[in-house]
Queue: 4 jobs
Job 1
Amino acid sequence: MLDSYEEGYHGDNGKAWDRLSWGDGGHKPGERFPTYLGNSEEAQRFKALNGSSEAEFLQGLLGFTEEPHSYKATPYRWKRFNPKKTDLYRAETLRRSDYVTISLDDPFVLSRDIDKEELTETYSAVAYANELGYVLNVSLTICWEMLGVKPKNSSRDESGLHELVIHPLRDWLKHKSNFYWLYSNEYSERSGLHTHYLFHIPKEHADSFKSYVAKRIKKINRNPQFNTASFKLRLDKGMDPYKQWMRFQYLCKGINRNQYMEHITTGEKVYIEDLIRFRYENPGNNHAMRRIAHSQNLNKKVRQASSFKSALEKSILDINVLYPRRKFRQQEKTEAENLALLKNLQL
């Protein structure tokens, strides 16, 4: 006969896991707080994140107690990959082995990978934008060589590239919205030098933005004819933070495979590539240009002035916390409403 702990383990584990699986901590203000989830590992994790009662949850929400964090590190156990890129993955495996002769002329031999400081800084910038209520809901990829734009691999040329996009877009948004952005520069055999951008565009301006981008890219084009494959635009009017985080991770797929971080509670070492959903792709050896960057209104100095510190800055290495699935909801309770709840609980 099973003892009381074993008897309820599997059922309780399922209940706790259901609450944790959306990545927002497992509980929201106004919900009925679960009174019993058992003693499973997932139940203990739920308590660490949310407390053991509605009162403890609200106290944590209002900042009266230390912000809860994951009990243990949870990296990705498998990677997303593109079957069409099988040859690319195979070539990289050979490049890292002793089975192929590597030439210094190989544009991938000294890859400019994203390091852990860059990952932490860029992640924190996006998390801060979300904290302000903005989702980077637009993904734009521009293949410069398809447009006849061929920089000479220098920071000055890079600045010129982004003046073709970021500065005009900033002016276009001037009276419409705050301008938040980030980009990642990469090189591939198929597309040459290309840049992945993430922007925030208000949904009411989505359609006009699509038209603006199409006209802007055609204006940038220097070839006799315009190649429609030179850019790819995706726009999420739903402002889904999880889609944003998936696109962010795709921008970070060319990440350092040898660096690791230590989890805040357990000290467990996690390689930073295991915090990225997508399989590694060599970004090329373009060391003269910035690998990844974001707008100044999201930088560390601005964040510190607001006393903001992201989960990754705190070394919380749980993908369910790092990449929440929750959408922003108008009906979520305000701080005043939460204070009223605390008063009713006579805390």
Job 2
Amino acid sequence: MDKIIAGAVGSFISCYVCTMLITGRLLYRQEHLKIVNYIIILAAVPLLRIGGSFNIIYKIIYVISIYTIIINLIYKKGFIFSSIICVLAYSIGLLCDVINSFIYLTIFNIDIVYIKQHPYLTYSMYFTFFLIVLIISRFIRYGNLFDEIEDFIFKKNLFSAIQYISFFVLFTVILAYIISVQPYLSKQHLLSTALLVLFIIMNITYFIQIKISTKSKYDYDNIYNYTNEVEKLAKQLSAQEHEYKNRLIGIEALVENKQYDDSLEFINDILSVQNKKVNLNLTNYDNIYDVILKKLLIEKTARALGEGIKINTDIRTQIKDINVPNIVLNDIVSIIFDNAIDASSKSKERIIDIMIDEDEDEINIIIANTYSKIIEEVVIYHDWYFSKGIFKGNGLSILKQIEKDNLNIIIDTSITEDLFIQEINIFNAKETI
């Protein structure tokens, strides 16, 4: 009866070590915190005890099969991937068992046969085996290594994966058989143990090489896709530039011929301006006498209201002359307002606040908007910072360049918990250039 209980305890510890302790470290999962996993291992103990009477080769294959099923149930990785992890975990567990036996034979000078005849020594050996596995498992730090291995395995055809599993299972079975039948500490036993260590190292090296290969392919795919996007964008920009130049020629001809109504209609057709039924009564843009700034604010406000964004405006004084070139003013306001609309439309509150003030020395334009996530201020003007996808975030770096080229313009960016705020300070206001 004592031997039956000791055997059951040994089966439970061995199963736990290979399916949860080592495998959990390999997959970077803390499954030992779930009670249901212990129930699965307890349920497997009678099945493992049945395999105790098998021939050593069949016994090892049987045990690895049971462990694979348990790993699949616990980690839900699929039978093929569970088999690969099981072989490696079983190999490490086998090595720990060999180290444990070596300690008792050399340090304690106790024969293994004698240990099996005395249950209390058997329990002691189980305890030291678990302790050895626990120590060795602390050195297993692979992070997401096996996630990439899993992707690689599933991308290969099924036959190749079965070949790989069959080879490593067979090799593990042969090594385990040789180690178990050879006299302890004999040359054959030590050589088999050395081969087991090499086998584990070879497996880990192979997995690391797969990770490197997978990462290289992933990087190559990213570069390839990035290059294609650049090429497409370059073609689109070239076509748009040609198109816009042709349209400007048409507008220029209408203006030179004093066909102002026709030129406005031409421009509206280009902008695809529709009569939007939005409420602009709450805005006091009548205080803005700069026609470009006023037109931009009306158009952008109409767009924002059409997208369900609430606009709060505070035009504190009459805004007449702005000391920047018209094209610079157009670019600054357009970029900041467009970004504000895009950001606030993705937030819960969907609000844009506009405040414009003028005194003797400067004009202040503040546009603040709600946003859905924190934007890092340190990279907000970086040329390669894309806040809304490939190349779409370059407007912010254009603002930085405008500020650099115009000494009388300062653009400050600040972020609060609720608002993304950009303030434009234009000094020495005078007649527009």
Job 3
Amino acid sequence: MTVVVLVLVGLGVLAVIGIVVGVTDAAQSRAWRRVAAERRRNWEARQAVTSRPVDSWGDEDSD
């Protein structure tokens, strides 16, 4: 009987953690989208300045 209670408590804790993470993520999503949009604009501005096209793998070492 105590094993069943322990499993149910564990599942309850996991459910609470999932809810907290979901609510926190939903609250921060607008800020993360704003950061991503700003980074994209900065990246596009840097690409417009360069005369040659740069692919997204340009920071990799290619010997």
Job 4
Amino acid sequence: MKYKATMLGLLLILLLNPALPIEAKIDKKQKCLETKEKIIKINRKMRQKYTVKQGEKYRRQLEKLYKLEFKYCF
């Protein structure tokens, strides 16, 4: 009986283990897409009129987003 429970546990571990990297890739891809959308949104805002203060804010946001884009997309 112990042998069957152990084998069942090992089988479950082996079946579920390959799913974890797949989910991580999907999550990374989703974060990549979200980051790119945010970059596009800020670039659209920067094509309109904005104050110096807003421009500084947009540039800081873009700098952070470009770092995230490099992390998730490349």
